[in-house]
């Protein structure tokens, strides 16, 4: 597709800068960097690792095994500021972000650049991703990723609600964005931590930028216990607090500069969707009072059949678990069941 649309510039393909923020990533950074160097796209001119104050052997791994990487160290300031630091050093026409515990499939950059060249109106492009556990045997991991490096479903231009729902969170590892657009959007903002990606998407869209997603799984997101330990609980709890405040910028009744992006009904549905996601987080973390508070607000908002069904089911299940097992064991069971339940209900609710 892209090859047919681009002929004159084929000899000078756009350049790409890969930016990897890293914090205590000695166990995963080699895999991430290996996936960058395995890209079939020929013009990745920068590979920048921004070490966000690691106290382990991250620096030693990078310097010993990847001498061509531009390694920079900063005092711990959070992943958003690390990405901004990397972007300030980037020279590429495009910026591609990758978390240190994730990995790209070999065709990712080539596919994305091809689509961006064929659709010059796009400002940013994501891909679908595959969630894996680091402990998976390599043979099983290879089996899961077979056939996932082609462009299966083409390009989809996303409206605001879908942009926020599909490209937020850990999926930041799939982003490819035009560097001038990133600069014009002013990068990631610290007050939004740890959901600065959501805040960035809102500001990106408010400036009139178009965002799309390639319907092809081109990124492996690590869901292993090591990558998502209880040490991240404070960060997730800050997200539960910050997300509603960030979404409030979209309220048509507010005085925000973003208040004209959605109709009242669209805003209600979007807020309900994210409150349900936050409630699931809180319940998995054992924060039942906060989870029920989020669910209570979500139930009072208008939304789709899928989200309405999810709210009722999760409230009933969580209350039953807490009563039957007590808060301590109910939290453990919630961690095992609620994620799978949410996926089942999303499948059942498609088209609703």
Please describe what this structure looks like.
- This protein is of the alpha/beta class.
- The protein has two domains: 2-222, Spore Coat Polysaccharide Biosynthesis Protein SpsA, Chain A, CATH 3.90.550.10; 230-348, no CATH class.
- It has 13 helices and nine strands.
- Strands 1, 2, 3, 4, 5, 6, 7, 8 and 9 form a nine-stranded mixed beta sheet that branches.
- Helix 2 links the parallel strand 1 and strand 2.
- The two termini are 32 Å apart.
- Residues 1-9, 139-153, 225-231 and 345-352 have low confidence and may be disordered.
Task: Give structural attributes.
globular, 9 strands, disordered C terminus, nine-stranded mixed sheet, 2 domains, alpha/beta, Spore Coat Polysaccharide Biosynthesis Protein SpsA, Chain A, 352 residues
CATH architecture of the largest domain: Alpha-Beta Complex
Order of helices and strands: HEHEHEHEEHEHEHEHHEHHHH
What is the residue-mean pLDDT, rounded to a whole number?
77
**Biggest sheet layout:** 9 strands, mixed
CATH level-1 class of the largest domain: Alpha Beta
What is the tally of helical segments? 13
Rg calc: 20 Å
Number of strands: 9
Strand residues, percent: 15-25%
Structural class by helix and strand composition:
alpha/beta
